[in-house]
Amino acid sequence: MERPLFYSLSPKSLKSFLESNGQKAFVATQILKWVYEKYEFNPENWTNISKNLKDLLLENFDFNLPRIVWNGLSKDGTRKFLVAMRDDKTVETVMIPARSNRKTLCVSSQVGCAIGCTFCHTGTMGLMRHLEAGEIIGQFLAVTKFLRDKVGPEERLSNVVFMGQGEPLHNFENVKVATELMVNEKALGLSQRRVTISTSGLVPQIKKLDDFPPVNIAISLHAAHNDIRTELMPINKAFDLDRLLGAIKEIPLKAHRYITYEYLLIDQYNDRAEDVTALLNLLPKKVSKINLIPFNEYPESNFKRPSVSRINWFKNQLEDGGITTTIRTTKGSDILAACGQLKSELEKDANLWD
Ligand code: SF4
What we know:
Layout: H1 11-20, H2 27-36, H3 51-60, E1 67-73, E2 79-84, E3 90-97, E4 103-106, E5 110-112, H4 121-125, E6 127-130, H5 133-150, E7 159-162, H6 172-183, E8 195-199, H7 203-206, E9 216-220, H8 226-232, H9 235-238, H10 241-249, E10 259-265, H11 273-282, E11 288-294, H12 308-320, E12 324-327, H13 331-334, H14 342-348
Helix pairs in contact: 1-2, 5-6
The protein binds iron/sulfur cluster.
Iron/sulfur cluster binds at residues 113, 115-117, 120, 122-123, 165-167, 200, 338-340.
Domain Radical SAM core: 99-334
Protein name: Probable dual-specificity RNA methyltransferase RlmN
Binding site for S-adenosyl-L-methionine: 166-167, 198, 220-222, 296
């Protein structure tokens, strides 16, 4: 049987493992510093750890990071990685530069996806398997190592969004453990406000979100009418807008401040005056923010991208109605229009990448 991944282990579980093997609990802090502060992933190089303990750790855990098998750099600085797990299954991970030297990592949570959104390439693959918590954390560590080795030792990732392949809440327990490791100060130590879970709207799991660290929540809404949303996202048949908004109201908002709604804007389809009215009626104004994602056309797509004036009109209507609205514009970010569009965009938009 394969050894468990070390990067799935919480600081608390590491401590218990050490104590149950006759080791002092404080050694956990030294080990975590090697991994999460010094980015040294080979226990053989940990100078303040005894040989016996290194052997014990290596016998019990797998310290290998996922392998970066390909990477490409976009003109705007976005870098895309194809990352292979130990069973050789691959997922995509994207690093997006932002203001003030910040860098966001968009991680995948599953190989494939069971949700089947009609605009999404990953949706056509079906679900192959869930990623383990350590494979999600491993994406962060592998990209950090890549950046430090290839760009400079000061390179750091500051934010994480779960908008890569997969529906994060379908892989609830592993994503929860990964999120806890992300915000734990002894592990990745990210601020809760710099981690975002994005969901297509799995209502039963949304109801369990109070179990999660209070990170940001984004909902892939894409339509304010049930018939349109069902066409785009078959999950709407099981969990329609009433049930979805009912569950969202239960999310404790103290730390979240607001919920972000992702809205793929498609010409003459969901960009009409009646869509504005429906959105304004649907969403609670003070605690909602809408992120408009103008559709990215590709040769065989049935949908069209709205004109710039139409996009701006739609945004202004929502803002006039009292909802903070942003437009996702840059090319590198466009590929994140939907979780799971990454692979198809890579194929369709090869010119974007080196
Ligand atoms: S958009 Fe996200 S939830 Fe929908 S099929 Fe693609 S990966 Fe799954």
